[in-house]
Amino acid sequence: MIKKRNFPVFPHRHLLGIRGLSPSDINNLLERADANVAISRQKDKKAIVLRGRTQINLFFEASTRTQSSFEIAGKRLGADVVNMPINNSSIKKGETLIDTAMTLNAMHPDILVIRHNCAGAAALLAKKVSCSIINAGDGSHEHPTQALLDALTIRRTKGRLEGLIIAICGDVLHSRVACSNILTLNALGARVRVVAPSTLLPQGIEDMGVGVFHSMESGIEDADVVMMLRLQNERMSGAFVPSTREYFRFFGLDQKKLKKAKIDCIMMHPGPMNRGVEISSSVADGPQSVIQTQVEMGVAVRMAVLEALIEHCQEKVSKKAYEANCS
Amino acid sequence: MKPIVLENARIVDPSRNIDEMGSVIMASGKIIASGASARNQGIPDTANVINLKGKAIFPGLVDARVFVGEPGAEHRETIASASYAAAVGGITSFIMMPDTYPVIDNVALVEFILRTAKEMASVNIYPAASLTRGMAGLEISEFGLLREGGAVAFTEGKKTIANANIMRQAMTYARDFDMPIMHETQEADLIDNGVMNAGLIATYLGLPGILREAEVIPLERDLRLAELTGVRYHAAQLSTNMSAQAICCAKERMFGISAGVSINHLSLNENDVGEYRTFFRLLPPLRAEEDRVAMVKALRDGVIDIIVSSHDPQDVDTKHLPFADAQPGAIGLETLLAAALRLYHDGSIPLKRLIESLSTRPAQLFGLDAGTLKPGAMADLIIVDLDTPWILELDMLHSRSKNSTFEKVGFQGRVMTTIVAGKVVYSSGLTGFQKTEKFDCCDRK
Predict the structure, then answer these.
(1) Which of these, B278, B286, B261, B271, lies nearest to B327 by C-alpha position?
(2) What is the reported pTM?
């Protein structure tokens, strides 16, 4: 049995994004996640931290790894996890987002995990419901748990984040992962670069405190970490990039381009990958790839977030009770 | 090959701001020295010295807008016939537009053009590739791969991209690869079925008119987008005073903006259409005399950077039709210099500025190794008799199509000899070089 350490109370009720978290909040979550890794590695994976709690996963977009990761994280901590299938639910019948959330809220869940294709959807629900909300991706806004698991992966492989050169390459414009990652890594003192054709970069990205590069060779030169982003199918031909052939030639990661980075550079991808579009198979399956570690860290990070939010609410309740007792 | 010394010539080299009597020494395809002081270092004993008796030497002309029929319409013009017509006109390099069939939108076709040019052409041919795939205006072309393949610019040819967002993305993407975009701006909806300049003459002739605004509205849009994206933007051919003013304002705001004008819009006006003469149906249409004068002034002042021929071979099948049914376009490779020299002879543009706009500046804009006579440069040059009077007859033309706007027009000044990489590719036989045989451009080897 692993001994539970005491962590400072997480000061937020929801996890809507990385923006709004202080570096110490982020470190708090990373420390908790670090301790959770061992739970998933032991034979008996069941903990009791969330026993009696209800977690609802409300995914309006198709997702395999994030949804199953949240489900496993909740179950390993002892919560009752409910997955809401969107395809045959009342949403198909025309119910609005808020109505759906209010309905679920009336069933007294403790945590609602939401993914939605609109930026700001999680924040909207947070104003309406009484439980904690975890944003599992809203439009191209934020995906905080992905950023945390990336940070944890880097920290565990490299031992630190401060001063590392991290190149985020690919479709930054449509990526919620990129946005959350830039905020997280900047907060933790890494030197972040983005590498993409200008057509896939949002306006004003340089003011987010990142170096902007339009060529892979110069962008990943001397990098400690190369993070590849997925290029969505519908953006492969047309107005953003001319073709997958051209994209792979100039912005796809292959062994030759990866040689420009530091010799002990690690390569990450949030998945799902397009082999031969943004990444070659030899790199994806090569020794520098830590993609599997990322998935493993995903569960640990989500356990940490669930635990931290529940603890926060508990603390509030007991504080109130204490105050009531005193008066 | 023996070194060649061309002496006693008027050397005009805008790249070094030179217009003086002197010599040009060239050997192994390169210029060794040129100008008044060229002979200071002495000349090789074995050199072949040719006395030009006061004729002029210019850097070979660079034409940034040439339509060729190959592939797809070889009966109008092949790469070989266009190249010989260019040599006769004193053009040693030209940029070929991608309006072919199929459209030049992929690396294989760029390579085809370059290979064919290497085998068949006597002048340097640089392909421009299309901005969007198949010129459909929907998906941007593979700029990176095309640049590696040898494309020097991206352009939609005679078309205008209607969708502002596609244009923005194309500009953004081209900027990353540091490639210039050359765009002709004609608002198709505003042109509707117009065929000539909107005005009194069009009304007299009963022909639907094309407003000046049809050109300037998309031009203004492009200039705003160029400012946003920072791309190098070249307005392919302007015809109105309004457009020149738009370019003038844009140049004050930002770098990387340039513009061209076709020789037709510097030489002719809407009156030339006369009685429905289809060879004078052009796009943009020939405008009023005020616009022509404004174009000349804009060129002199540097608002408009370059002169192009807009060489567009059209055959009997597309020209011998009622005016409104005929295709727009006129050939111009062989008459480009002669027509431009009229502007020098009538005193409206100094010779040095004229040659700059025909040679040095287009080479700079598109990054071509041309347009200069400085030592070490490729020996691409032309020998010109500035004073010879002559009259153009259509059967003198070497182009496969004869749709010239200058039939039976008197010119003053003519190309005597054209030299590309030190090799004589055209000579009229009057300058000490052997006369070249009339080029047989009917069959490929």
Answers:
(1) B278
(2) 0.91
